Amino acid sequence: MKMSDCGSSDGEVDYCPMIDISSLPIVVQNRVKALKNLQLKTVNAECEYYKEVHQIDVKFQKLYDEINKQREAILSGAYEPSGAEIEWKNKDEDEVNGEGEAKELTNGIEKLKILDMDENTKGIPKFWMHALKNANEECLMGLIESHDEEVLEYLTDITVQLNEAQNNGFTLRFHFAENPYMSNSVLTKVYTLREDPDPDSPLEYDGPEIISCKGCTIDWKDGKDVTKTIVKLKKLKPKKGKNVPDKEITKEVKADSFFNFFSPPAHTDGKEEEMTDEERATLAMDFDVGFAIKEKIVPRAVLYFTGEAFDEDDDEFEDLDTEEEEGDDSDEMD
After folding, report:
1. Is 50 exposed, middle or buried (0-12, 13-18, 19+ CB in 10 A)?
2. pLDDT tens-place string over residues 75-123
3. Domain 22-83+98-223+258-320: CATH architecture, name and number where available
4. Backbone φ, ψ for residue 33 (5° rounding)
5. Torsion of CA 199, 200, 204, 206, to 10 degrees
6. Residues 6+ away with beta carbon under 8 Å from 61
7. Is the pTM value of this prediction over 0.90?
């Protein structure tokens, strides 16, 4: 059978191996089985490798935590850096002089006005809100909506806690200052990992994988829940002779919001067969977002705040639009 002959019920083409193993001589099939047993040995060795790596991760996470505490102290204004701590030469400073310096200074002042900061500003207000907003499309799948930003302004830190001693999960903690939106000072998201190979398909092992997650209850203050919105269904007019105002029929519905991140689908116990396609997709996106927060945003927060986190990726690509457009124009002229 050709690969192109393999189809699924929804019309999509599935991959089919070029060789039908069952058609091979028994002696060859047995050798293939022996190779699978060797592959299982590789999987078991890889599993042990990741367990040792986790011990190193735990060791260095303590170092990262200490560094991030210093970051939080600067952000909150509890500590004012000075001397060698504030010596940093930006890569584009050598290119700026004369008129360029004045232009850069003007732009900087304008940006300060936009961010509502001045020389008397304490720490770096709204740091995490801006960092997450800049990372929204690349790391957060566009989860942050405009109505979330006012709540995220009170986010003061995001911390990561690894499970010890097994590599079976991690917890993200979002720390908030006192605010008019919620009573919680900390929101948590717990991810569970499968450390060992899946017994049903051990050869598919590709390192520890997220298999479930659990959010937390957000204690929204009255009228401040950004995950819900009121929609108007219809308007009822009073009967003739009744001197009363029109009556609106409304309904509270779920709204798109970053804070839905703390309310993942109910079926998150690893039993995918019990989930709907929509729940699987939502959960897959949730896992990607959680991993990105842990591996990208938390350790490189300042680069997302400044936008420099995207510079390296941009440098790897060339803008071909101009050449393509010129090519199209020449073709038209021909």
Report:
1. middle
2. 999 999 999 999 988 766 554 444 455 445 445 445 545 577 888 999 9
3. 2-Layer Sandwich (3.30)
4. -60, -40
5. -40
6. 160, 162
7. no
